[in-house]
Amino acid sequence: MRGSQHEDGQHSTPPADPRRRVWPLFLLGLAVSGLLVGLMLGRLMAPGDVQLLAVQATNGLELYFDREPAVQAQDVEGAYALLIQAQGAAEQGTLSLAGGDVKWRVMPSAQGLLVYLVATRPLPAQWQGIEEGETWRLVISLATE
């Protein structure tokens, strides 16, 4: 044992193992499998989109959803618009108020449901969300000037 060279195989240092190390690959496989299983379970457990169940015209407008959606309101003179993060069918109608008629329309779009209320006069309106058991009701109240 004069040096560390491989001369004729008569020394105490074993030759390097030509096989690949399996342990790092095994751990990588476990991590990837765990990630994929977690993604599948998350997809199964995630709730779907909020659904519009019904629209009812009263002194204002009442929209019924299966759970609470995100709502953004915009008030423009003579119109009131809501963007609701939900899915549903298109509907339209007319409301009769003391100040005149108000036309309303529910339209699906890429961002969600658009709810428009249009009148010939300024339209003071406000919305309020109410949870009722398993449903959620969005009440749009209209005031006459």
Give the gist of this structure.
By secondary structure, this protein is of the alpha+beta class.
Spatial gap, N to C terminus:
106 Å
Portion of residues in beta strands equals 35-45%
Number of E-type strands: 9
Mean pLDDT: 85
Major β-sheet, in short?
Answer: 5 strands, antiparallel
Going by helix content, strand content and strand pairing, the class is: alpha+beta
Question: How much is the radius of gyration in Å?
Answer: 33 Å
Low-pLDDT runs: none
Shape: rod-shaped
Write the layout of secondary structure elements.
Elements: H1 23-45, E1 52-57, E2 61-65, E3 71-76, E4 79-84, E5 91-97, E6 100-108, E7 113-119, E8 125-132, E9 135-142
Antiparallel strand pairs: 1-2, 2-9, 3-4, 4-7, 5-6, 6-7, 8-9
Written account of the structure:
Keywords: Membrane, Transmembrane, Transmembrane helix. It is a single chain. This protein is of the alpha+beta class. The protein has a domain at about 50-140. Helix content is about 15%, strand content about 45%. The chain is built from 1 helix and 9 strands, in the order αβββββββββ. A hairpin with a 3-residue loop joins strand 1 (about 50-55) and strand 2 (about 60-65). The longest helix is centred in the first third of the chain and has 23 residues, at about 25-45. The termini are far apart.
Give structural attributes.
alpha+beta; 5-stranded antiparallel β-sheet; 1 helix; membrane
